[in-house]
Amino acid sequence: MKIFIAFESFCEPFDILQEQTVLSVKLMIKHHFRLSLSDDKQGRRFLELTYAGAVLEDDWVLADVRITSCSTVKCLLKEEDKPLLYVFNALTRQTVPIMEKPQFLTATVAELKNLVSLKSGLPVSTFRLSTRGGTELYNCNKMDDYQLDLGSTLRLDIWDGWKEYLTGCLLGHKHIIQRYLSEEEHVAKFQQRVALHMAAYFGHLDLAGWMLKQGVRADQPVGIHPYREWCQETDHPNVNKCPVHAGAEAGQLLLLKALVNNNALCLECRNPQGQTPLKICIKHGHKDCVLYLITKVWSVVSFPGLSFPVRIYIKIKQWLYKVQGRVRSKKTMTYKTRVGDTVLVDGFTEIKMTSRPKVKGARKDSRGLRPTLPALTYRVPVKRHKPAPWDSKRQSRGSACLKLPAVERKQWSQGEGAAGTVPKQKDDGDKNKWKVKVPLPPIRRDTNPRPQFFYSTPNAAGLLTSSLQSFSAHSGRTPRENAIYCLALASAFKEKPWLEQLRMARNLARRTVQKPIC
Fold it and tell me: Is the pTM of this model over 0.90?
């Protein structure tokens, strides 16, 4: 049959067969127009065919997607840059791509950690980066020193025992945060600053309000972990970033309003680069936040019989906090570390940032108390009498009075190693996407009795069950999931009527029996 390929300003006819795949058609287009395609570490240049509003996959057959004679297929030449690096987040179990130019490999590790912090929302003092071999990347070194190639995967690890706590910060659940708060006072204060930073980044109003009530200030830097107090000279410069800066970078307008109304010093709070929240919002293009901060900066503070600009009020308040800080510094030592406290030095002490979960025995409830087990009680064994001999005369009378104890059915969760359990299968990454597109009714058992056939194969049920099991093992999906997947693919052809989409789905489902569609 003959189809037309629309490429740029050309519309050329091609003679193809109905059993040809999309990949073979792409090769014909490549040789006809003399195009150069590439696929290397830096990026790839490829062809994309679209028909009836849907993108055609390489392994599809033209007849299955109902491409008939004299149809027009649109062809596009696309270029795609591949990520420079990948960072596997041990907290969320997700891989974050780093889209930068190859020259970025000559930058320092501190700049890389800054990008990872902007993408993940974690402060730079809560995680570390390491290679696949376990070599830690230090802030002062360059990435070239570790011989990182294009497309390499790094690992992000957090402090040991912080997984549940940071998960609560990501979700904004203050009860989880209160439950897994550290028992050490100086570590707990650092965790509260981290929680306010993440609440400002993700926009959790309830969590931010609760942290402000606890006395955490949004204009104070998050700082470093108390264990690394002796490593301040080699730490990341962005440890001095404040929670209000994180809210400005993310464009969280409601959070900025809450933080500024709580403390006006947030308006003139500067990050390590010397930028105020207003300049940060202008840099990232958050228009609503810029308008709000401008109105607050040029507003007036009124007192009984006195009013002056906000800038003067901020300078007075900064002077008061500075005096209070000097008074406190005279009463305290330079280092807050005491005898018996943990001190970490890079390259000398054991690493405590391996994303290990917290010990279950150290959990606390919402009131801050450790759970205790009830006292053991000794039970006196009860003597069981032998059952009386069975009497046929008392059968009818005893059957009405005899009661059997109720059997408790225990539902086993998937993934457990007990007998009779169903192993938990791993879902593919795009499963939720095609399931949402085509919602189907729930599975129901048919209780309506059917008339039996005059003759039926004795092993018909066994043959059907075995074939369905082999199909699931071969394709990785159940027949129902495969039907949803094929309908989702066919529904991408929006310019086709619904019955035509249904025929495409049937053809695709029929082909998956022979060869599964990836």
Answer: no
